[in-house]
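pinned: reference chain
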Amino acid sequence: MGDDRGISIIEILMVLLALAVMAGMAMPSVFRTLEVYRLRAAAWNLAGDLRLARQKAVSLQLDHRICFANCDGAAVPAGGYLLQRKVSAAPVVWFVDVRRGDLPDGLTLTWSADAVTYDLKGEASGSTITLTNSAGTYDVVASPSGRVRACKPTCPL
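pinned: its structure tokens
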């Protein structure tokens, strides 16, 4: 009789085909999870930059701001923002410390104020910045007291 202990090429191809079908079924879930992580990371990064602006305003005793639009002649990267410090009061001159334009593709920012400005005591002008992509929405809230929160979908009062 013949030797039945080996694996035929047909059996290997059937196993590979089954694995390919299972991987194809899992891909939409993997892509959605990646979008969720990208959104959350961008929100936490923005919250960190707002906290950095507050810390610099207090420690350097210079007003700092995160600027999203109308940044006194400084070009804001598309879909991004600037971290600026005030170097002169009269006339008002802002210097760009950080230019953040590395937000994930497909992410949009909307805000309630063009900039969040921190004074020497760490108090803020206040704003809510909403980050949105295909996976959902995050709000980053800079309250007038200087506190910064990143929440999904909205921050509690």
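why pinned: The longest helix spans residues 9-60. The chain has a mean pLDDT of 88.
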